[in-house]
């Protein structure tokens, strides 16, 4: 184990099971489809249950930066969503010292509003005051590297730009727990370097970071510990080099 | 030592467990700037998309009033209340605020999934913000309403200041209702399909283009029931503040009823919404 026991635990995952009801078409039942949900449910009533996590346990401590690896569909994202509370656990429990923030790929915060206003609203939502936002605004814009697009509505951004802005907003505040779910993969090279530096910074400020990634280089560069998940079970938890070696041996 | 004991010993709390109600409300209060800015930005972007921009805020209810005025003015030619045009304008404008809050409030959670999933903040901010957005739209509407009523020949009176407490009560009522419907729509997504019909039902049972008091003057039971229909109370109060003459006396007890309604709905709304706090944004 990489973590010496004297550091206080920040996240405890205790024998977590997650089961999904999945439509026979392969789509997750109900969930995020805001449009056409009604139709889909009517057309495809047959559901099947999928055991996405089968009893995962581990403890994340202060200053930990944990890489989560595993093949597609192994349950990495499900575990991350469960840690934030977006996916209910079927069995077991997850304890955390504060509510974690989850940075995933995907939609803009508020599509219709400009990047500028998304920054202001995102920071206000996280509990920053107007003064603090004014102080940090330029840093956020520069970090995202979106100076010339900041007045355009976020719906016009590419997925890379969206991810960059979201990451810049979410890391504007000191986080106790930050979860980055492949959000860096869509960014370009220089942004990836900047964001990895930012992750190390958070870790150094007594934060705890979870990084889901398929880039073993990113994981080696930022993490002090790696958890390997396969088919919903925890295969290995330990030093990055050791775990990555074992993981790569199977693929 | 089990992991659960370890968690308890280090003061970790179970993910998804909601804070106590007072702590929750304190968090919401801390986010008041967020609630207001979200409302303001959304209203502006909504208006930017139309060529006439803010003009629609005024035009929409005016066109509504004109349509109802022409159609029902002719249909109900015999039983039109006195000062029919003013009666209609006040009714339509106030109802517009109610129905816009009602509809947007109900969708406030289901339409913000991305925001909910990325950032953690007290979710109550969203239905609140929807209502504030509609309130920001309502204020210029009230100004237009006053100008129209003056142009139609009613002299301004000091009593019109009572519109302020009325708007406050209506806002409290709208906010409470938005919290209730926002949560219900999360549990029953299909509800959003039904909302237009609910709005219409309230529209027809509120007495916007006809006077319940005249139409049902012989049916005391109907009138008694209408005494307790909150939206009808707000409209009647609004008309009695603005207009004078037969049929527009201030029904003092309506202030009491409307206050009780508003506060009760707000309290129920807050508790009801808070109880499912961990549920919003979830994908299950």
Account of the 3D structure:
- The complex is a heterodimer of chains A (251) and B (284).
- By secondary structure, chain A is of the alpha/beta class.
- Chain A is built from eight helices and nine strands.
- Chain A has a six-stranded mixed sheet, with helices on both faces.
- Chain A is globular.
- Chain A starts with 8 loop residues before the first strand and ends with a helix.
- Residues 31-38 of chain A have low confidence and may be disordered.
- Chain B is mainly alpha-helical and 284 residues long.
- Chain B contains 13 helices and one strand.
- In chain B, helix 3 (32-48) crosses helix 7 (125-151), helix 5 (84-107) runs antiparallel to helix 7 and helix 8 packs parallel to helix 13 (252-275).
- The longest helix of chain B has 27 residues, at 125-151.
- Chain B is elongated and about 80 Å long.
- Chain B starts with a helix and ends in a 9-residue tail after the last helix.
- In chain B, 41% of the residues are buried.
- The mean pLDDT of chain B is 86.
- The interface between A and B is large, with 57 and 43 residues.
């Amino acid at each position: 184990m990489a973590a010496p026991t004297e550091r206080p635990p920040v996240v405890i995952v205790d024998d977590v099971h997650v089961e999904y009801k999945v439509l026979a078409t392969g789509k997750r039942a109900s969930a995020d489809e805001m449009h056409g949900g009604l139709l889909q449910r009517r057309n495809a009533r047959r559901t099947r249950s999928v055991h996405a996590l089968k009893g995962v346990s581990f403890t994340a401590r202060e200053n930990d930066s944990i890489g989560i690896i595993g093949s597609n569909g192994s349950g990495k994202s499900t575990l991350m969503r469960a840690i934030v509370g977006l996916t209910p656990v079927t069995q077991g429990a997850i304890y955390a010292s504060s509510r974690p923030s989850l940075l995933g790929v995907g939609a803009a915060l508020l599509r219709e509003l400009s990047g500028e206003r998304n920054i202001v609203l995102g920071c206000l939502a996280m509990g920053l005051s107007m003064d603090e936002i004014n102080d940090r605004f330029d840093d956020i814009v520069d970090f995202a590297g979106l100076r010339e697009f900041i007045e355009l509505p976020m719906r016009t951004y590419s997925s890379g730009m969206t991810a960059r802005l979201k990451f810049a907003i979410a890391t504007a505040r000191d986080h106790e727990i930050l979860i980055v779910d492949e959000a860096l993969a869509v960014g370009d090279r220089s942004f990836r370097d900047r964001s990895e530096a930012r992750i190390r910074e958070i870790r150094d400020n007594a934060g705890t970071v979870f990084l889901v990634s398929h880039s073993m280089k990113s994981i080696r560069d930022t993490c002090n510990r790696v958890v390997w998940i396969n088919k919903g079970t925890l295969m290995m938890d330990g030093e990055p080099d050791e775990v990555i070696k074992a993981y790569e041996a199977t693929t | 030592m089990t992991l659960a004991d370890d968690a308890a010993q280090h003061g970790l709390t179970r993910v998804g467990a909601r804070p106590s109600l007072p702590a929750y409300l304190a968090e919401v209060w801390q986010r008041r700037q967020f609630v207001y800015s979200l409302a303001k930005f959304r209203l502006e972007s909504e208006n930017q998309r139309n060529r006439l921009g803010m003009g629609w805020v005024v035009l929409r209810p005016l066109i509504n009033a004109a349509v109802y005025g022409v159609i029902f003015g002719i249909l109900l030619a015999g039983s039109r209340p006195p000062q029919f045009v003013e009666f209609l304008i006040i009714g339509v404008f106030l109802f517009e605020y109610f129905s816009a809050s009602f509809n947007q409030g109900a969708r406030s959670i289901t339409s913000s999934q991305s925001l909910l999933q990325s950032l953690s903040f007290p979710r109550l901010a969203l239905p609140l913000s929807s209502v504030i957005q509609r309130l920001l739209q309502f204020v210029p509407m009230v100004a237009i309403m006053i100008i129209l009523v003056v142009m139609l020949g009613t002299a301004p009176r000091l009593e019109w200041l009572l519109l302020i407490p009325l708007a406050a009560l209506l806002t409290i009522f709208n906010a409470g209702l938005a919290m209730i419907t926002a949560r219900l729509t999360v549990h029953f997504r299909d509800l959003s399909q039904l909302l237009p019909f609910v709005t219409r039902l309230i529209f027809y049972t509120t007495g916007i283009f006809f006077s319940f008091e005249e139409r049902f003057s012989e049916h005391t039971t109907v009138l008694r029931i209408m005494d307790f229909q909150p939206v009808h109370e707000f409209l009647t109060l609004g008309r009695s503040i603005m207009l004078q003459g037969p049929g527009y006396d201030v029904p003092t007890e309506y202030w009491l009823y409307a206050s009780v309604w508003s506060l009760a709905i707000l309290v129920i709304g807050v508790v009801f919404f808070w109880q499912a706090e961990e549920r919003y944004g979830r994908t299950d």
